[in-house]
Amino acid sequence: MTVSPTPQNVRPPLTILLAAPRGFCAGVDRAIQIVEQALNKWGAPVYVRHEIVHNAHVVRRLEDMGAVFVEELDDCPNDRPVVFSAHGVPKAIPAEARRRDMIYVDATCPLVSKVHAEAGRHAKNGMHILLIGHEGHPEVVGTMGQLDPGTMTLIETVADAEAFQPDDPARLAYVTQTTLSVDDTAGIVATLRRRFPNLAEPRKDDICYATTNRQEAVKAFAERADLVLVIGAANSSNSVRLKEVAERSGAGAAQLIASADDIDWSWFDGVSVLGLTAGASAPETLVQGVIAACRARFDVRVEEVVTAQEDVVFRVPRVLEGA
């Protein structure tokens, strides 16, 4: 019996496990709307201090609409509006904008603002505050900049938590960056609780709902996936954490990509099940672009893995309502 050869145009099968939730969170969506509505209200150019969110595709689209991204307030003229990024800024920044009589709109995510308020409340009560987060991240810079120097200590690792020596162990509180690994943070908090039984804690977990939900979605399919692709920027904390979560949760391999253009197709050797997700600042168009690129090479079946439903919406500042 003669066996016919496999036609060259037959594509190998690929199952894509598509995380839900994925992509934009309410804070990112609000921040983008703020820039868009500021352009509608005041016209171009509107200046934005720091990337509004950590995604180059989002930034380029807003630049095409007339936004100008700068790193410092000194780079902004007094006579044009400026928007502060979703990550939050030190309190000295809006104070300087007011001194210069500038129009400014604060796009800080309300969940980051909640952390700022918690830290301020603890400081008024005479507590020393431990901020769990990553040094140099804009959100950490903004949170530490809410209080006077020396009021807050950054804790990045379990080792930091073990080594910290407070002046008064009975007067400590902690807050966290909103985009951390849930599991890593739990280990740091457990160490602090063991060492400081009187440690004051947030009324509600500071790690935002979107970060938690996206990590849980990856955990739900990681063991089934030969490869997990996380769409997001290398400087996006929540996206980097998603890659780490995939690796720790049993995925065969995990890669962080900015878009389908970054895929090395040799990664797919021996891959029959792909896990796919996107960080909270990555638009859905990038997800669909990866799926389309896979369809061009594989016989694709998409299976959405739903672990939570999100219906959170944050309103834009009143100054922009109706814009």
Structure commentary:
The strands form 3 sheets. The chain has a 5-stranded parallel sheet with strand order 10-9-11-1-12, with helices on both faces. 35% of the residues lie in helices and 18% in strands. Residues 1-6 have low confidence and may be disordered. With 323 residues, the chain is α/β, with parallel strands linked by helices. It has helices at residues 26-42, 56-65, 92-99, 110-124, 138-144, 158-163, 182-195, 209-221, 237-248, 284-295; strands at residues 13-20, 46-49, 67-70, 82-84, 104-106, 128-132, 152-155, 172-176, 227-231, 254-257, 273-278, 299-306. The protein has 3 domains: 13-24 and 209-306, 4-hydroxy-3-methylbut-2-enyl diphosphate reductase, catalytic domain (Cobalt-precorrin-4 Transmethylase, domain 1, 3-Layer(aba) Sandwich); 26-109, Rossmann fold (3-Layer(aba) Sandwich), CATH 3.40.50; 110-195, 4-hydroxy-3-methylbut-2-enyl diphosphate reductase, catalytic domain (Cobalt-precorrin-4 Transmethylase, domain 1, 3-Layer(aba) Sandwich).
The domain tally reads 3
Largest sheet: 5 strands, parallel
Number of strands: 12
CATH topology of the largest domain: Cobalt-precorrin-4 Transmethylase, domain 1
Quaternary arrangement of the chains shown? single chain
H/I helix tally: 10
Q: Report the order of strands and helices.
A: EHEHEEHEHEHEHEHHEHEEHE
Termini separation (Å)?
Answer: 73 Å
Helix content: 25-40%
The average pLDDT value, as a whole number, equals 95
CATH superfamily of the largest domain: 4-hydroxy-3-methylbut-2-enyl diphosphate reductase, catalytic domain
Class of the largest domain in CATH?
Alpha Beta
